[in-house]
């Protein structure tokens, strides 16, 4: 045979084999995380070819806990080691149906001569993962701050206004989830529930401005998911925490959590209470038809919160899991507001002084809930879950409301005595079925259906001089039935990932207004709507540490039940709140471009909110104003957000959230047709500093610039500085902390604005500045699989 021919054949064979090997390589992603789904960034990973007994790759997990590798066909092992976790080895075979392989690693406890060493790794307080901002409450001072409302008030990117509305930086309302399940509570009932949820029970808070179709369509501005702590280790566990805080008033909090876990079942019991008064002070200076009124209000909330729950879990094997939860919470106690109003003719001629009170002699809002869930996992590629939930809320209040007028010289002009009684009953039931199917390489299908029903019954009685006022007393009932279905599909091809989904909803609602003493005179408002809410995203993995994503979604906000009730409530005889039964849902179209690189994430967004509704202060009649909710037009927003975390030194970690926005409010209702434009920005910085003597210092600050409000008003700048210092004792069983919130008392809600007939300047603040002392103690017996180790690097590799 010719020598040149032999050489060519050899070269051809080698080339073909090389091409074959390259084409046969498979792209695999290893996702390394702990039981709490926290990514194990910087974990060391060694990939070994089991058949040939050789190391083929040695790499470090990125900030998302991910490792990207290419492997030929064969059998492999992945050895994972990370500070604070047990070494873990996973065996897998290529090719595999899963391009994403999840590896769960456990916390490490090592015995060395009867000494227990527990290693803990740094975790940033704020991280961006898969388009969500995760706030690690359990690892920060937020865990000791009070209740869930306090945590949300001081979490970066989350805002709570003086009316208790919770929102993200995006346009639209925000839906609240607990452990991935939406809570149907709204307004005061939602606030009452969050007040009963102790901050020590919260593991983390996850916010997403662009959730997929598996989440309810509500929450045009996004969702906030509050993830609660759960003890999964077998054994007996008892955690008790007690705190006291004060500034204007003293507040005492206690939280007790008890669990007993066996291999196939767990039972948990919790109890907490929050006792103490909260002070607020606010005022408004308004010029109406050329006349000035100046009002100042002192407000003291004297309600206490109590909550208890029981959780049962039974999982006989890996395929079946049953959970049951029941809870009772209540917000109980009086309250008091005192308002002084100076009434002028023109701008300088003081004609009268009005002293008004709201003496809430009784306030009571108990909540009862129960849920049952079943999860069936016949294989790792199939999951079916079924959930049934029921919530009942009964609320009642009685308020004495004297209004006394004086001449400027102090002599009595006249006196009006009012009383009001309100009782409401809300029943909410829902049933959900969700299905998850993993197939192919990087393919995921989500589908589900949900049916829910809501019934609200509100009786309001208003008395003037001990006689019922028929013009203000009524009974308002509201019912709503929803049927929703969704499907979501995800596909991953090498460095590309695409998702698309749609959620459809059929909603029927009926509001019935009946005057209290004329039940035959009824006003009915019914709606029957069908809506579709699509979403889609596409992302590309530029490199191991860099990823870009483009996403679109459409979502909605429904009006709160209490905003639909057209009864009148007065702060005094010159200032009213009034419901509106004709509010229609608002919808939001949102486009987000995201670029992430290591610890840096940049989001660019465009939002358009249609059929926009908000609370607005408007002229009521002569010398009085009314605050009500209306559909008033459209809102648009351009935004840019940055999330960045950095370890500056071994003892100093910092996190930064910065956002800049441009708002456009197009108001078009009744005779109002105006456009308001304004830029704004927000800044959040948190620092975690390790001091000598095992002390941990945390300093967090927020600044909100002047910004456009919901309608014509402009919100003035505000912010806070929080300082917390903590230390653990007794092998981390005893945790103590001292916290100063809003150190300079700058967390305010000042604003100004004007319309054709009304010029308003308002201000206010609450008891956000507090000094708190907290003690938390853990007592328990855990059953660990403890390893007695003598680590040698040569043997490890």
> What top-tier CATH class of the largest domain fits best?
Mainly Beta
Annotated CATH homologous superfamily of the largest domain: TonB-dependent receptor, beta-barrel domain
Distance between the termini: 48 Å
CATH structural fold name of the largest domain:
Maltoporin, Chain A
CATH architecture call of the largest domain: Beta Barrel
- The tally of structural domains comes to 2
Which ranges are low-confidence, i.e. pLDDT below 50, for 5 or more consecutive residues?
A: 9-23, 109-120, 783-797
Find the structural class using helix and strand composition. Answer: mainly beta
Q: What is Rg?
A: 30 Å
Describe what this molecule looks like in 3D:
With 797 residues, the chain is mainly beta. The chain has 2 domains: 3-109, Immunoglobulin-like, CATH 2.60.40.10; 126-395 and 402-782, TonB-dependent receptor, beta-barrel domain (Maltoporin, Chain A, Beta Barrel), CATH 2.40.170. The chain has 5 helices and 49 strands. The chain has a 22-stranded antiparallel β-barrel. β32 and β33 (523-543) form a beta hairpin. The longest helix has 22 residues, at 3-24. The two termini are 48 Å apart.
């Amino acid at each position: 045979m010719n020598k040149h021919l032999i050489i060519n054949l050899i070269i051809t064979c080698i080339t073909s084999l090389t091409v074959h090997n390259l084409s046969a390589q498979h792209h695999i992603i290893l996702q390394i995380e702990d039981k709490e789904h926290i990514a194990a960034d910087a974990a060391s990973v060694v990939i070994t070819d089991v058949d040939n007994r050789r190391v083929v790759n040695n790499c470090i997990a990125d900030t998302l806990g991910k490792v990207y590798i290419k492997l030929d066909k064969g059998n492999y092992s992945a050895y994972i080691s990370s500070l604070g976790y047990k070494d873990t080895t996973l065996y897998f075979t290529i090719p595999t149906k899963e391009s994403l392989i999840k590896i769960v690693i456990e916390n490490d406890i090592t015995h060395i001569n009867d000494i227990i060493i527990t290693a803990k790794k740094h975790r940033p307080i704020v991280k961006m993962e898969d388009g969500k901002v995760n706030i690690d409450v359990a690892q920060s001072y937020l865990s000791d701050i009070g209740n869930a409302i306090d945590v949300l008030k001081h979490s970066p990117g989350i805002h709570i206004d003086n009316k208790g509305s919770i929102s993200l930086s995006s346009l639209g309302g925000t839906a609240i989830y607990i452990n991935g399940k939406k809570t149907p509570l709204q307004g005061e009932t939602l606030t009452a529930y969050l007040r009963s949820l102790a901050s020590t029970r919260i593991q983390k808070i996850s916010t997403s401005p662009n959730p997929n179709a598996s989440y309810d369509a509500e929450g045009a501005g996004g969702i906030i998911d509050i993830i609660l702590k759960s003890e999964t280790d077998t054994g007996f566990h008892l955690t008790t925490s007690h705190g006291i805080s004060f500034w204007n008033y003293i507040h005492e909090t206690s939280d007790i959590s008890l669990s007993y876990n066996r291999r196939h079942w767990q039972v948990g019991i919790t109890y907490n209470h929050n006792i103490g008064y909260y002070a607020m002070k606010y005022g408004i200076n308004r010029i109406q038809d050329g006349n000035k009124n100046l009002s100042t209000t002192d407000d003291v909330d004297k309600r206490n919160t109590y909550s208890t729950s029981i959780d049962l879990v039974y999982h006989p094997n890996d395929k079946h899991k049953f959970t049951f939860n029941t809870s009772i919470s209540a917000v109980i106690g009086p309250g008091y507001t005192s308002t002084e109003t100076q009434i002028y003719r023109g701008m300088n001629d003081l004609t009268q002084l009005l002293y008004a009170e709201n003496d809430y002699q009784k306030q009571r809002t108990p909540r009862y809930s129960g849920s049952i869930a079943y999860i069936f996992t016949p294989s790792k590629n199939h999951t079916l879950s079924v959930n049934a939930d029921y919530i009942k809320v009964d609320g009642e209040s009685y308020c004495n409301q004297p209004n006394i007028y004086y001449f400027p010289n102090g002599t009595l002009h006249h006196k009006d005595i009012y009383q009001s009684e309100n009782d409401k009953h809300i029943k909410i039931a829902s049933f959900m079925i969700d299905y998850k199917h993993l197939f192919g390489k990087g393919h995921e299908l989500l589908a589900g259906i949900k049916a829910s029903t809501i019934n609200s019954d509100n009786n309001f009685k208003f008395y003037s001089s001990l006689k019922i006022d028929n013009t203000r007393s009524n009974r308002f009932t509201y019912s709503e039935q929803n049927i929703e279905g969704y499907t979501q599909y995800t596909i991953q091809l090498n460095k590309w990932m695409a998702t698309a989904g749609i959620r459809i909803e059929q909603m029927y609602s009926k509001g019935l207004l009946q005057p209290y003493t004329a039940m035959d005179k009824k006003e009915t408002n019914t709606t029957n709507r069908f809506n579709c809410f699509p979403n889609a995203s596409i992302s590309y993995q530029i490199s191991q540490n860099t990823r870009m994503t483009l996403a679109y979604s459409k979502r909605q906000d429904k009006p709160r039940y209490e905003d639909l009730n057209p009864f009148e409530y007065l702060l005094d005889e010159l200032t009213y709140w009034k419901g509106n039964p004709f509010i229609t849902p608002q919808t939001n179209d949102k486009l987000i471009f995201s670029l992430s690189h290591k610890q840096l994430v940049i989001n660019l967004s465009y939002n358009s909110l249609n059929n926009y509704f908000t609370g607005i202060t408007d002229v009521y009649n002569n010398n009085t104003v009314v605050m009500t909710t209306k559909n008033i037009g459209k809102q648009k927003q351009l935004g840019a957000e940055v999330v960045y975390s950095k370890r500056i030194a071994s003892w100093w970690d910092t996190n930064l959230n910065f956002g800049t926005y441009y708002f456009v409010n197009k108001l078009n209702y009744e005779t109002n047709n105006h456009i308001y434009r304004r830029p704004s920005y927000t800044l959040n910085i948190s620092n975690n500093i390790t001091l000598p003597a095992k002390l941990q210092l945390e300093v967090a600050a927020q600044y909100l610039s002047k910004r456009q409000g919901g309608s014509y008003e402009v919100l003035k700048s505000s912010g806070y500085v929080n300082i917390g210092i903590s230390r653990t004792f007794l092998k981390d069983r005893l945790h103590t902390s001292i916290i100063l919130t809003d150190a300079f008392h700058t967390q305010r809600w000042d604003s100004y604005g004007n319309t054709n007939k009304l010029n308003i300047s308002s201000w206010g603040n609450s008891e956000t500045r507090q000094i708190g002392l907290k003690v938390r103690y853990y007592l328990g017996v855990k059953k660990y699989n403890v390893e007695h180790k003598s680590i040698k690097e040569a043997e490890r590799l």
